[in-house]
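Archive transcription. Copying these from loose printouts into the bound notebook so they stop getting lost. Printout 1 of 2:
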Amino acid sequence: MSQDPIAIGRSFFEQVLGTGDWAVAEKIVAPNVVMHHPSSPVPVEGYEAVKGMLSAFRAGFPSMSMTVEDAFGSGDKAAIRWRMQGVHSGDLFGIPPSGKQVNVSGISIVKVKDGKIVEDWVSEDTMGLMQQIGVVPA
């Protein structure tokens, strides 16, 4: 397995989040991973908790795709600028499906140790997402 944080971060977004294939994640995400996400008031700790949160998000957008638009890094960290596109066709944390197409951008900074992501700091356009699905006025 690569030790390159850029390659590992790219794989996480394209091969795991972009497809929903968590079998790949087991190879590149540490059991004790910590995710700092703007929609959670506390860090999401542990592989199963991170998988649960991100799988619940994907349930709201079952056909979502993730595109890595830029990736760079230094040392044990990589910044991944990404874009998510999909149709809100499933329940999203209690928000009923709107049927609306969304296009959301974000940046994640991943820290890698021993070839696995151990920490992820996420910044995304959550307000834009809520506007696009009609929860918040545009």
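Printout 2 of 2:
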Amino acid sequence: MDSIALRRALGRYTTGVAIVTCVDAGGASVGLTCNSFSSLSLDPPLVLWSLRSVSPSLAAFKAARRFAVNVLSESQVEHSRRFASPVADKFAEGLWALGEHGAPLLAGCAAVFECETRSHQEAGDHHLFIGEVLACSESTLAPLVFHAGHYRLIGEVL
């Protein structure tokens, strides 16, 4: 399989953009941009996301009991870029607060899911994380989406 062709073909599937966060063992906030987030089950309420095995954030997420998925709104593209970069203090921008369940939450998101880690496992060059949703919220803001290597805005509903 040609990995470049596979990546291009997978990029044709439009995804949302989220910042997944947790607090590490030392109490520091950890976060990264993610477009591999998906619903898994309504009963029980489960979601999943994946993280590259070489990510410097992997150890923090494997050790964390809880995490949050902050689904970005259209106006939050700069937050997505910031959390996808190696900048040292990613949480220096934006309105952040610890959620009721202990993970950092970003104000102004399209939706937020506070989760308890149920499992994680290695799968190829990534780790899959499954979380049980403990709390969620939504807004009427349009979500930021990613398609064919670019951020996109949602158009008119047909």
